Amino acid sequence: MELRQLKYFLAVGEELSFSRAAERCYVSQSAISLQIGKLEREMGESLFERSSRSVRLTVVGTQLMSIARHMVELEQSALALTARRRNQLRLTGNMTFAANAIAAIVQVRERHPEAEIDFVLKRFAEQIEAVTSGDCQVALIRGNVERSGLEVTELWKENLVVVLADSHPLASGPDPRLEQLAQYPLLLPKRSEQILLHRVIEGAMKRSGRRLAFGPPVAMDHTASAELLNHPECWSIIYASTAESTPKTGLVFRTEAQRRLKLPVSAVVDSSIPPTDIQRDLIAALADTAPSPVPL
Q: What pTM was computed for the model?
């Protein structure tokens, strides 16, 4: 028994006419008759009483009508579920990307009013796991990730901001170079707690031929910028997106003179799943939210 046969049966049962049922289903009358005949043979019962003037349901045909309606409604419910999933999308990132996420979602909703897009806050490792598990369709991350089955699209480059105590020897001069910063200890959380910043700075220092010295690690319940007030001989870095909200009393913000301290901001998706129009447009909208350079 095929769902198509039940649809044709339902059309004939409601129209009580093979010709009108054929018009309603956009098929020929012979195609309708053929499928109804197959259904009757499979059922082992006549479903219609036919005459030259009329078509009437048999007792079994009447009983089958409610079953056929239910089957067709189940199919429509399943298709509606799929349609809802096509219109739904979950974007994950951390709180520093909240403004970007909201702006992008607003832009996509203007083009896709039916879209339902959630922004879910997660830590970096959780973001990647959410994409691979299917819990989220897009992760907005800093840096890159190399894992089979993931596709990474770079959206923009984010400059890192150098933070100095206002009594630091480099605070009163022009933007410092890496070679100058290398002469002073760097304040950061432990590498295991902020591996991305460590990698960016270590890589930049290595390319410049300098070695990096570290000050005491910053505890997770402290901020590096505040700790500079206790260790004014050190320096630190923060993301440009958080610079505006960071208290500046006793501190000086600078940009590395040759702009060598930067990292990519990327969108990560599951490469095995074809993207929807909403997903493609969301990634493009996220790229449009790339921040302008922060005046320091």
A: 0.64
